[in-house]
Design brief:
6 helices, two-stranded antiparallel sheet, alpha/beta, 9 strands, globular, 36% helix, 184 residues, binds NADP nicotinamide-adenine-dinucleotide phosphate
């Protein structure tokens, strides 16, 4: 039976450091399609979800473009158009496939792209469809006195959620400068 959802989100790489973002989207009532290869990671996320009925596990390697396309298209047909995508992937090609597919089914949608600090200085070019509002969340580091460290998963997810709620076109979690103080 087709179960069309009013709110359908997709999290590319949503079983790792963005797990809390996937769970938050479910709490917000989004049917949430989550991409990641490992069944164990999907199972762990599913166990944590208080709204596990809203989780749609897409166990696919996003480098397998035909399977990626098939799985996303099936999800859209089952749950309705995707209006919100959160992406943590270094693969521009995979993300452009997602962009093209999502755009086919909806008038307007949002892409929240999570990016490592390298891309703050030297970003990859991404083809963004005209019906998509794209925004970037850069991951920096934390400086505590003389000591610096990378962000925790909790800090990353909380920063991404804050960014989505803010409506900003760009956010930085932590700091990028002074760049020479970043952790090794
Ligand atoms: N500035 C910072 O502080 C900063 C920046 C970047 C990273 N980090 C840290 O570095 C750690 C490692 O980063 P990570 O990139 O491994 O992040 P991660 O979020 O732990 O894992 C990546 C996510 O993408 C999925 N994924 C990876 N390759 C995939 C593929 N080919 N197809 C489909 N899904 C795929 C993973 O699931 P599967 O493995 O199951 O596919 C997982 O859900 C993170 O834990 C984070 O704390 C810190």
């Amino acid at each position: 039976m087709v179960k069309l959802s009013e709110k359908h989100a997709l999290v590319v790489g949503g079983t790792g450091m963005l797990s809390e973002v996937s769970l938050w989207l479910m709490e917000m009532g989004y049917q949430t399609s989550v991409i990641g290869r490992s069944k164990e990671k999907h199972d762990r996320l599913m166990k944590k979800a208080t709204h596990s009925d809203l989780m749609n596990s897409l166990k696919v390697d996003y480098h397998n473009h035909s399977l990626l396309e098939e799985q996303i298209r099936k999800s859209i047909q089952k749950y309705g158009p995707i209006s919100l995508v959160v992406s943590w992937t270094p693969s521009t090609q995979a993300l452009e496939i997602v962009n093209k597919l999502v755009s086919e089914y909806i008038k307007h949608w949002h892409l929240y792209q999570v990016k490592g600090s390298r891309r703050y200085f030297n970003d990859d070019i991404l083809n963004v469809p005209s019906n998509c509002t794209q925004s970037s969340i850069y991951l920096g580091f934390i400086l505590e006195g003389n000591h610096s460290r990378w962000l925790t998963h909790e800090e990353i997810s909380a920063g991404v959620i804050q960014h989505i709620q803010s409506g900003n076109s760009e956010s930085l979690i932590g700091r990028i400068h002074p760049y020479e103080k970043r952790p090794n």
